[in-house]
Amino acid sequence: MMVLAFSLLLLATLLNTALSISTSVLSHEKFSFFQFYAVGYLLASLLGGLVLVRWGRLPAEGLFMLFGVLLLMSVCNMLNMTMHLLSFKYGHNGLTTVIGNSSSLMTLAFGVFVLGETASILSLTGVVFLLTGLTGITLTQVHDKGNSQYDLRRWALCVIAYWFMSSLVMIASLLTSHVPKPALDTGLRVPILFLETSLFYFIASPIEKRLQRNPKPLFAFTPKQRVAILLWSLLAVVQTAVLFLALDEANRARISAFFWPLTSGLGLFLFTLYSKWKLREKYTIPIALSMLSCAIGIVLIAAGKHI
Questions:
Q1: Could you give the CA distance from residue 247 to residue 239 in angstroms, rounded to a whole number?
Q2: What is the DSSP string of 205-264?
Q3: C-beta of residue 52 within 8 angstroms of C-beta of residue 241
């Protein structure tokens, strides 16, 4: 059970990193991400409904609870992605991802104090290393005055909001595994989550257009952008379906409290490598040492849970 949980966790991390990289690349395109996500999530919802839903098991016990948890997750996810993109715009891509990943520590506290899971001394030591590394990275960025292209004030506000919303998304995702099993067996989690998220983006898109005084018509995508939406939607369906499977297995193995810290830690290294070799972002020695501290923390957390 533990091996299966860790294997699914690793696969979910790889897919999530691929989705994060695609979002980072697309952040440089000149189009509205509100409109992109509105159409992308709607398409992903339709794809999920066709492939994942077991219509013969409807209606099922616990569907209202499932709708409520996913509604919380979708609202926070919209705000989370918005702040994520703004953080990319105003600051360092890799550093934004590091700080966002630190929100996974909130799920550790939630898992231990609310879900009643255990945390060994070794795992808690890992948390200390992780916090030390993330603090070091943040302090290094604050004192870095040499890069004039960053808007530190706006970046700080956006990344704090990104951290808070990311925490709520992760906690809500843990709660989906505690919904009655008949509701989970319907396979509705992915299409409902995407449909609810899409609706919020459809509402927000004309508001954003008016605030930015954008003369372009709504949802006027180029052929290249339409292909990007389709590919992104396919990746989102696969990634989220695997994510929910991994969360369910982690819940059964009683390691859900450490699911997001481990996923974030593993994803950090993958995204850092991408930023280093593709985006050519510079990492100072203090940042490198802080990242090493994060790595030690992740290893200790995993060892403490005998993964």
A1: 12
A2: HHHHHHHHT--SPTT---HHHHHHHHHHHHHHHHHHHHHHHHHHHHHHTT-GGGHHHHHH
A3: yes
- Amino acid 297 reads G
Task: State residue 188's pLDDT score.
Answer: 95
Q: Please give the distance of CA 41 from its chain centroid, rounded to a whole number.
A: 15
> Among candidates 9, 22, 14, 10, which has minimal Cα distance to 233?
22
Read off the tokens for 34: 């509100």
Rg (CA), the chain: 19
pLDDT in tens, 85-121: 788 778 766 677 667 767 887 888 899 889 888 888 8
Rounded to whole angstroms, how far apart are CA atoms 247 and 286? 34
42-71 burial, b at 16+ Cβ within 10 Å, e below that, comes to bbbbbbbbeebbeeeeeebebbeebeebbb
User: Mind giving me the DSSP string for 286-300?
Assistant: HHHHHHHHHHHHHHH
